[in-house]
Structure formats: C-alpha cells, structure tokens
Design brief:
Distance between the termini: 33 Å
Order of helices and strands: EEEEEEHEHEEEHEEEHE
Low-confidence stretches: 1-16, 18-28, 188-204
Structural class: alpha+beta
Shape: globular
Oligomer: single chain
Strand content: 35-45%
C-alpha cells in the first residue's frame, strides 16, 4: 500500500515537510508490518543542503519485559544497540543537529530503479520503491546519493494525512535517529557517509 502526499521540499520555518508514506509487509513477517515515509529537509543558509530522511516504525509495536514491570520497545532497543541515538525533541532542526553516524552494520541501499532498503545487522527493516520520474522522489534519491540518509524511527510515530507526527514518540522516549550510510548499486557510484550532518546557519 502506498499513500502519496505533497512531494515538494519545504523550508523548515515555513511548514512541515511533504512526505510519501508506504507500507512494506515483505521484509518483517506475517505478524509485523513496516510503515514508513520519505521526506527531504532543506538545511543551512546559502547553498542549502537537501537532507533525505527515511522515517519508519513497526506495526504493531513490539515490547518486552517482566509482567507488571516496565516494558521496553524491541525496535528502539535494537536500534540503540546499533548506534542510533535517543531524540528528546520532535524538532527537525534539533534532530539534524544531534544526528550521529550509526554503526557499520546499518546501511541503506539505493538501486538504479529507485528501490531503497534499510538493513540493520543484515536484517531488512524497511523498503520502499520510489519513482525516479516523480519530482519529490527524484530529489530524495539525489540527496541520498550524496552519501547518507537521516533515519528517524522508534515507536509511536504517527503518519497522518498532513504529515509525520513525532511529538508522542519524543515525549514517551521512543524516538531514535541516526545517519545511515548509503550504498548505491553498480549503476551508480558508491558514496559512503563519513560524518554527521553539520549546521550551516539557521534553519530555513
């Protein structure tokens, strides 16, 4: 299933970014589905950098713990163990500023036909098929080929008709982020990511 929203790129101070939402059921199993969205953030002042973002969550949420005790998110725990960081704010500006590279076991593969796959320690966590002829998808793919994708994940992410809601996840401590290196398939050049996104002036 794929739900398409406004594919345009927005300045952060104007309005929330447009996004595409898709549901992938072939990478998790019969009981879980991976639901995700792609969006692009403009970052910096003059000569703005376009940051491709891949946001996803698992439906339903998977938790573990002792009966009567505090429950722990399996997704959040797994990502933290692979170098993702907890995000305490739902501000895109703060998320970009605090993003750090994840461990090498995490990769985002981009193929020539627009297929993207996020792998964590060899496991396929989320996949989407983008349309290279779609302006929004083309901008996302161009940004990804620069070397990294900002992944936003965890429990309690809400994908709505108007955008991506991160407030509940941030308040509940289930929002994690990380800069994941991109591997481009042989029809393009590999451009691995070597550092975290850096601020260039104010959010625009």
């Amino acid at each position: 299933m794929s739900l398409t929203f406004d594919p345009a790129v927005y300045h952060l101070q104007c309005q929330q970014p447009g996004l595409n939402v898709s549901q992938a059921t072939d990478c998790i199993g019969d009981d879980l589905a991976s639901v995700g969205a792609r969006l692009v953030l403009n970052w910096g002042g003059t000569g703005q950098t376009k940051i491709p973002v891949l946001a996803y969550t698992m439906v339903p949420s998977l938790v573990f713990g002792e009966p009567g005790g505090e429950m722990t998110s399996a997704l959040v725990s797994a990502l933290l163990n692979h170098g993702f960081q907890m995000a305490l704010s739902d501000s895109y500006g703060e998320i970009v500023r605090q993003a750090v590279p994840v461990r090498q076991a995490c990769t985002c593969t981009v193929s020539g036909d627009g297929a993207i796959e996020l792998h964590v320690d060899g496991a396929l966590m989320h996949s989407q098929q983008l349309d290279r002829t779609d302006p929004g998808d083309a901008i996302w793919l161009e940004g990804a080929r620069a070397g990294h994708v900002l992944v936003i994940s965890g429990d309690n992410l809400a994908f709505t008709d108007t955008g991506l809601e991160l407030g509940a996840a941030a308040r509940l401590g289930t929002l994690v982020t990380g800069a994941v290196p991109v591997l481009v398939t042989p029809d393009g050049k590999q451009s691995p990511f070597h550092g975290s996104p850096q601020a260039k002036g104010q959010d625009r």
